[in-house]
Amino acid sequence: MLASEARVSQKPLTEKSIYTIKICKKMKMDIQSYLKEWALNYFKNRDLIARNIEKIDSNDGDLVIKYKDRTETVKPLGNLSDFNVKQKSNDYINLICFNTRNNFDFLLKNWEDFIEFLNLKILFINPFSETEHKWIISPSVHVRISDDQSLKKGLLAIFETVSVLHDEEIGDNIKNIERL
Questions:
Q1: How is residue 91 annotated by DSSP?
Q2: What is the domain range of residue 114?
Q3: Whole-model pTM?
Q4: Positions of E strands within the chain
Q5: How many distinct structural domains can be found in the chain?
Q6: pLDDT single digits (tens) 45-58
Q7: pLDDT one-digit tens code per residue, 11-46
Q8: What DSSP letter does each residue of 117-175 carry, written as one string?
């Protein structure tokens, strides 16, 4: 019943999506808080075997993860354009953004700036996808293993492995949180 009532772009939400929305509603999360929680779970699960995480703190909306050998900052942005690509850093940075065409286009438009961040990873996510939920790119590594002629085509192929979210769908999903 809930799946038929909660719709995004005329497609019914999956049971997992409805569960995610209910969790967000229960926790009264805004979208940045949701992305932060998603990232926290992702990085904890990724470390289950290695157990390299020593400590995770919250700092001005970001997560700061202290590993045995480095410290990483996780920035739950939603929109990639919220990241200042002109402020260069060699810090370990993970950007969490939605898998939208706008974010993908921003990556392409600012590719030359992104490749200068040696320790940057960008996670493009769609928590409501029925297929893959994320794809990850490290521009400074990717530029070394790809050629300029196939860059856009290759990135587009990776981008399309996760269902593309449209900006209005993000808002619709947030509204669905309040309806459920």
A1: S
A2: 2-179
A3: 0.80
A4: 7-8, 11-12, 53-59, 62-67, 71-78, 92-98, 120-125, 134-137
A5: 1
A6: 999 999 999 999 99
A7: 555 665 565 555 555 545 677 888 999 999 999 999
A8: -TTEEEEEE-TT-SSB-EEEE-HHHHHHHS-GGGHHHHHHHHHTTBPPBPHHHHHHHHH
